[in-house]
Amino acid sequence: MSTTSVSTSLPTGLSSRLVVAALHNHDLMIRTLCPALVSYNFESGNPNTQATYTVTDRKPNGLTTYKLTLTNNPTGVDSLVNANPPVGILTIAGKWRVGGGKLVEDVMIDGNFMMKKMAKGNVEKTHPGHHAMLFQLAARA
């Protein structure tokens, strides 16, 4: 299992409460995590606590569909991606937490060597931008 962490300071004037509320908004989270979103469908659960969605996203190599489970907790949200691309199974578990003036995302990635390396690089490259987008949307709420 591969792990990585992305940490971003909250912008001045943006409260932790607003960021947690944005993390708990599953529609907003899906749109933040998937900037090239094609579609998503609610599968099961309760969007106010824990829910599973089927997400179709556009990637450089084409469309990909996967299951995404979001679980709200008092200081953030847990995300779980279960994907089955042609080259093997990929699981990405994230813990998004707000505290100490920061949004910290701890990510565990499981899959074959190639998938883990590619997913880790993608998280480290794109998720700081996801944090910034989430902050912008939270500030509008």
From TrEMBL:
Domain DUF7053: 4-136
Source superkingdom: Eukaryota
InterPro entries documented for this protein: DUF7053
Pfam families linked: DUF7053
Protein name, entry field: DUF7053 domain-containing protein
